[in-house]
Amino acid sequence: MKILVINCGSSSIKYQLFNMDTEQVLAKGLVERIGSESSILTHKVPGQDDWVETAEILDHREGLNKVLALLVHKEQGVLQSVEEVDAVGHRVVHGGEDFASSVLIDSDAIRAIRKNVDLAPLHNPPNLLGIDAAQHNLPHAKHVAVFDTAFHQTMPDYAYMYALPWVLYRKHKVRRYGFHGTSHQYVSRRAAEVLGKDVEELKIISCHIGNGASCTAIQNGKSVDTSMGMTPLEGLMMGTRCGDIDPAIVPFVMAKEELTLAEVNSMMNKHSGLQGVAGHSDMREIVEATFNGDQAARLALDMYTYRIRKTIGAYAAAMDGVDTIIFTAGVGENASLVREKVCSKLTYLGVELDKEKNADLPRGEQIISTPESRVTVMVIPTDEELMIARETQRIANQP
């Protein structure tokens, strides 16, 4: 079975084509600046030079049409015909309470995705554009929606509800939803495979630490709590997002600085976190500046790792223990100093880091705790696209 995975932004299409018999990536790429006269299409096939094309691409349908043309191109192609694409997996950010699993896309699914636009106004609309474009260009294929939020629908009510008037949940579905679910699901299952254990036997804390960041408590293979909330703003300190703050700060700052709602929202999402404290959102720059004696960078790094460590402690309490801690995503996979600072004060849990193995990364999957450590600490590179492809295959093969 050949599956095309699509992740659409407002002006972009990321794609990967998988041969699911071997889970091999046949081709992948990115269409950028859709709606522009100078859109850029980058197409990559293993063993070949990258194909980069600049062209006028006015909408997602046209963008996907160009992608499909490259997939069957005489030199750059990997298919004889687009009819070989059996199914298309669509990343959809927000499924609200409507979806606790991936689903075959039909008119009811599209209506439900559209209904949840208010919960993800920057993401669900382009996701819908991608679905429309793919259904238009690949009408023969099965189309599957894979939701970032679905994995977290197993959280108990006391974990996902906010202590706000109940009417806000009843009328507007104000609650914790969580994100990065596809990544947390993938790395938790992969960690269990590496350890030779059943994921349902483990208590796992998964730390997806990139520009956006979240931790998830996974017990018996299910998400029981997660740090992001109704939106991706809640929880950990991130590259440009503030994470948890006293909510009274918002009206206080709005009054003092005479900010509009849009301006304070932009401040918390785009100008806070590492960027707000240290002037850099890239962890590599933060680490370098810290070594060079920059006190703002040192403070940002300490705040960042403290929040992660504090959340790990909370989730160990929530699950009455932890067997495995996973680091994944850009920072989690590459920043050895972040992992070291997080784990250095988890000794009360029995965490004992192997500093040589930790410093030796990135080298793919690896256990970075010592054999004596009561908690296994791992680095597992995430592969959300492969998880989406697997989910798409599972749904597409259902009778």
UniProtKB/TrEMBL annotation:
Keyword presence, Membrane: no
Name of the protein described by the UniProt record: Acetate kinase
Pathway the protein acts in: Metabolic intermediate biosynthesis; acetyl-CoA biosynthesis; acetyl-CoA from acetate: step 1/2
Record's keyword annotation contains Metal-binding: yes
Residues where substrate binds: 91
Key words, A-Z: ATP-binding, Cytoplasm, Kinase, Magnesium, Metal-binding, Nucleotide-binding, Transferase
Source organism: Marinithermofilum abyssi
Subunit text: Homodimer.
Site (Transition state stabilizer): 180, 241
EC nos: 2.7.2.1
Pfam families given in the database record: Acetate_kinase (PF00871)
Superkingdom assignment: Bacteria
Active-site feature positions: 148
Species lineage: Bacteria, Bacillati, Bacillota, Bacilli, Bacillales
Catalytic reaction(s) noted: acetate + ATP = acetyl phosphate + ADP
Family recorded in the similarity comment: Belongs to the acetokinase family.
Binding site for ATP: 14, 208-212, 282-284, 330-334
InterPro entries from the UniProt entry: Ac/propionate_kinase (IPR004372), Aliphatic_acid_kin_short-chain (IPR000890), Aliphatic_acid_kinase_CS (IPR023865), ATPase_NBD (IPR043129)
Functional note: Catalyzes the formation of acetyl phosphate from acetate and ATP. Can also catalyze the reverse reaction.
